[in-house]
Specification:
With 145 residues, the chain is mostly helical. It has helices at 2-23, 31-61, 68-96, 100-114, 121-132, 136-144.
């Protein structure tokens, strides 16, 4: 739970500061710096969220996590790619409605898979796509709630 809070707190604080400054008529010249800080905090949060998910997955499977230091940088690399894809593809999935449940499930699975130390970008995408298509009805129920 500490890893999840380590992810969520900096991101939420930077987002709240950015929203407050932008709504209070803040100087536009400093807008880019705070937007960059929010982006870095988002990638930080995504990486720790992936590590948290990988820890939960390993605990449920009765496995040990290996090399937490090296896998952090690996997870950061994978999250940088996956979360960028998410920001580009998710609006299209929402607009077209049909692949929304699959897309949501895909990116949730990709977050957990990216936290594993032995994962590559190809394996993360392949495993996430496979798991996203397993049970479409439960994906729609998860989106509804």
């Amino acid at each position: 739970m500490v890893a999840y809070l380590l992810a969520a707190v900096p991101f939420l604080l930077s987002l709240l500061l950015f929203v407050h400054d932008m709504s209070a008529g803040y100087l536009a010249s400093r807008c880019a710096i705070e937007a960059l800080a929010c982006t870095v905090a988002y990638l930080w949060a995504s990486t720790w969220k992936a590590k948290f998910g990988a820890t939960l997955l390993a605990t449920m499977n009765g496995q040990q996590l290996t090399s937490p230091q090296g896998s952090f940088w690996h997870a950061l690399y994978l999250q940088s790619i996956i979360q960028t894809l998410k920001l580009l593809l998710f609006p299209f999935a929402i607009a077209s409605i049909v692949p929304l449940a699959w897309t949501s499930s895909f990116f949730r699975n990709a977050t957990v898979e990216a936290g594993l130390a032995d994962s590559s970008l190809r394996s993360v995408l392949r495993k996430s796509a496979k798991r996203a298509g397993v049970n479409g009805r439960s994906n729609w129920i998860a989106i509804a709630f």
